[in-house]
Design a protein that fits this description.
single chain; 207 residues; mainly alpha; Serine Threonine Protein Phosphatase 5, Tetratricopeptide repeat; 9 helices; 69% helix; binds adenosine-5'-diphosphate; binds magnesium ion
């Protein structure tokens, strides 16, 4: 279930993961970007965590708003505003809801992804975080149509995100800094798709 407590555990786990994976994510970004993706996310989620501890949100919508604002405020790179928009848009789905499951999570991802698209204008296959997020959403929708439990749907969703993440390796980047490299972006895994797969894997352990 998505509750204030499970969102807190998820977000605090993400802070731990992004700090542990800081070098790895920044190394991926060094190959096709400017090498700051891990540093950006570790700093962003450190800020989310400290904001949460300072002013614990009372409901799910305020929690997503807090996450969004902290990311936008503290991350200089494009991933901050993009993930910030994801949480802002996705969080609107949760207004007046306090215990939610698969149907709402599908809506959160759907609206969150739409926010990323609106802001960054990337499409599927452009070698961005969307190449992990779209397959994750599709896997959730498929799981729902097959009547799977929320837990099974979450597992299918992060596995699809990991496949999507690996499938970015042969892609040519069309958006973000990696696109400046043209053909030379081919053969490298996208850092944003990697951090998105981590985000969804962590969610599957707490919801
Ligand atoms: P910056 O590129 O500003 O240094 P980061 O390194 O934190 O920011 O994030 C890079 C990641 O952001 C990329 O790997 C990609 O997944 C994602 N990204 C960049 N531009 C876009 C975009 N227009 N739409 C979606 N995702 C994008
Ligand atoms: Mg970067």
């Amino acid at each position: 279930m998505i509750t204030i407590e499970s969102v807190k555990n998820w977000i605090f786990d993400l802070d731990k993961i992004y700090n542990e994976q800081k070098l790895y994510l920044s190394e991926l970004d060094s190959a096709i970007g400017d090498g700051d993706h891990g540093v950006n996310l570790a700093r962003g989620f450190d800020t989310v965590k400290s904001q949460w501890e300072k002013t614990p949100p009372a409901d799910l919508a305020s929690a997503f708003k807090l996450i969004s604002m902290a990311l936008i405020k503290s991350v200089g790179g494009s991933a901050g505003p993009l993930y910030g928009t994801f949480f802002m848009r996705g969080g609107l789905v949760l207004a007046n809801k306090n215990e939610t499951g698969l149907d709402e999570w599908i809506e959160v991802l759907d609206k969150g992804i739409a926010g990323i698209v609106m802001m960054g204008k990337a499409q599927k296959g452009d070698k961005t975080m969307l190449d992990a997020l779209y397959p994750a959403l599709e896997a959730l929708q498929k799981a729902k149509s097959e009547g799977k439990t929320f837990a099974d749907a979450l597992k299918a969703s992060f596995e699809a995100a990991e496949t999507g993440m690996k499938d970015t390796i042969p892609l040519l980047a069309k958006k973000g800094r990696a696109s400046y490299l043209g053909e030379r972006s081919i053969g490298h895994q996208d850092p944003g798709a990697t951090s998105s797969a981590m985000l969804l894997k962590s969610a599957s352990q707490f919801f």
